Amino acid sequence: MRPPAGRPLPAAPLVDPFQRAITYLRISVTDRCDLRCVYCMSDDMTFLPKRDLLTLEELDRLCGVFIDRGVRKLRITGGEPLVRRDIMHLFRRLSRHLDSGALSELTLTTNGTQLARYADALASLGVKRINVSLDTLDPEKFRAITRRGDLSVVLDGLRAAREAGIKVKINAVALRGVNEDEIADMIAWAHGDGMDMTLIEVMPLGEIEGDRTDQFLPLSVARARLESRYTLTPLPDRTGGPARYVRVEETGGRLGFITPLTHNFCESCNRVRLTCTGQLYMCLGQEDAADLRAALRASPDDALVTEAVIEAISRKPKGHDFVIERARPAAVPRHMSVTGG
Ligand code: SAM
Ligand code: SF4
């Protein structure tokens, strides 16, 4: 169908060499965080100098380029996105694409510590669903996993989000010997409060103190245990990502399993990831990245950066290459907090 007279033809959408349409961009807006989860960061992380980060204006501009090329969903992540100064300015800017209909979803992955403060503003800017990472409901374990967090602050944040009308999904990393006995109860809690829940396997991303093979709990094991308490009915729901979903018949809620190490999900991959310094990673599990910051700063016109984006997508690999046994040192040297979850 032709667009109405006077309207330019839409730019060609981003399609990679394996005919996968790229419609989903994850943006890490900071590598910093107020927590230090044991599987994600070391205790004494060195963060990037602030001058290396894209400004909020640059992030907005870059998102605009992707949206012009057919990206329909943005997920803001980090580090902890809500600790970046003036982050609501970026949400305010991006929400205009929701108003215009160019974007179908603007969402967020957060540790929840700042939600009590920001939930109302996020809801008013069109954020309808968020992911909140929470691995335990035991305050002491929470402090141990995050090395400093206060569980009650996150629970207050969750309440604020729900009261603001935002739908919450809880993401929990399954950790051997840490929260494995709690998973079934957490599902009952989350579903009881109307929240979906997703379990994530530990991925070998970035150097941490200790050994991830100790933390690794295969979700096949977690799932088999859950099946002694719950009836899990597979759902056809697919997001283009690594999650597989089931309905928990006893609670009526939805449960996801993200198993990047034991499952291959690459054939339906619809996403790319932007770091806070403007590196575009075409695959979470591979090192190849395109430097969009240089293109962005080289010219105030978007032509150059658009060209860089198209060129980068033409390099998107067919699949990733994680193996937990090779995770010492980390199989992929950058931390999840750099590329975002
Ligand atoms: N700070 C925010 C949060 O915690 O939700 C957003 C960024 S965090 C890097 C995104 C997600 O990645 C979280 O759900 C976290 O549990 C997960 N994550 C971090 N490191 C991981 C790892 N090595 N393996 C698996 N998941 C990891
Ligand atoms: Fe921070 Fe999220 Fe990493 Fe935890 S998982 S240290 S909250 S970035």
From TrEMBL:
Gene3D superfamilies to which the protein is assigned, alphabetical: Aldolase class I
Swiss-Prot/TrEMBL cofactor(s): [4Fe-4S] cluster
Pathway: Cofactor biosynthesis; molybdopterin biosynthesis
Residues involved in [4Fe-4S] cluster 2 binding: C266, C269, C283
Binding site for S-adenosyl-L-methionine: Y39, G79, S133, M203
InterPro entries: Aldolase_TIM (IPR013785), Elp3/MiaA/NifB-like_rSAM (IPR006638), MoaA (IPR013483), MoaA-like (IPR040064), MoaA_NifB_PqqE_Fe-S-bd_CS (IPR000385), MoaA_twitch (IPR010505), MoCo_biosynth_MoaA/MoaC (IPR050105), rSAM (IPR007197)
All residue ranges annotated as the Radical SAM core domain in the record: 17-243
The protein's Enzyme Commission number: 4.1.99.22
Matching SMART domains: Elp3 (SM00729)
Cofactor binding mode and count: Binds 2 [4Fe-4S] clusters. Binds 1 [4Fe-4S] cluster coordinated with 3 cysteines and an exchangeable S-adenosyl-L-methionine and 1 [4Fe-4S] cluster coordinated with 3 cysteines and the GTP-derived substrate.
Binding positions ([4Fe-4S] cluster 1): C33, C37, C40
Protein name in UniProt: GTP 3',8-cyclase
PROSITE patterns: MOAA_NIFB_PQQE, RADICAL_SAM
